[in-house]
Write a structure and sequence with these properties.
Blueprint: H1 2-30, H2 43-48, H3 50-62, H4 69-85, H5 95-100, H6 107-121, H7 128-145, H8 154-165, H9 168-181
Helix pairs in contact: 3-4, 3-6, 4-6, 6-7, 7-9
Length: 182
């Protein structure tokens, strides 16, 4: 008789764990990352959504592209609209970033999101170097997280090595200087 009761308790425990797992995973999928019905007409609208912008950027950085693609698209759409219309976040796309994202065009968005995140977290900082470094770091993280679904890119691989060696800023400075020369 005890064996039957223990067996029932174990089966009940397994059922409860399975239920919690399934309920937890459905919450992840049901969760809205990007806000719904947002309005981006005034500076106060943009300020109102800053925490949502950061939440979306962080969520995209932590999840592979294959995870919940519909929610990813909504988050990316929201971020692009917010960044494009923001009166106080300005992203400068240098020629080097176009080269870095030429084989995998979606990496340009990753760069923009990292750049925007830096600007939001450092309002008023006009130094292009740390903003570009933040954008590159976001691009590299996305590249590494999604390597199975992206085209391998020797230029990004070079940037990964430079970042690991602490030489990324040395590589970046001449890229930014080219703009001043033109």
């Amino acid at each position: 008789m005890k064996i039957g009761i223990t067996s029932v308790k174990i089966n009940s425990l397994k059922f409860c764990l399975l239920f919690m797992l399934l309920a937890g995973s459905s919450r992840v999928y049901a969760q809205d990352i990007a806000p719904r019905n947002y309005s981006l007409n005034s500076t106060s609208d943009f300020r109102q959504y800053e925490s949502d912008v950061l939440k979306c950027i962080n969520w995209l950085a932590e999840h592979p592209r294959t995870f919940n693609p519909e929610e990813r698209r909504k988050a990316e759409d929201f971020l692009v609209k917010w960044i494009y219309g923001s009166p106080y976040v300005n992203i400068i796309i240098e020629p080097y970033i176009m080269k870095l994202s030429s084989k995998n065009a979606d990496l340009l968005l990753s760069f923009m999101f990292g750049y925007a995140q830096y600007q939001l977290e450092h309002l008023g900082d006009k130094n292009l170097v740390p903003a570009n470094i933040a954008g590159i770091a976001h691009l590299v993280k996305d590249y590494q997280l999604n390597l199975n679904n992206l085209e391998k890119d020797p230029l990004i691989e070079k940037v990964v090595i430079l970042e690991k060696e602490g030489k990324l800023t040395d590589w970046l400075l001449p890229q930014l200087e080219q703009k001043k020369l033109n």
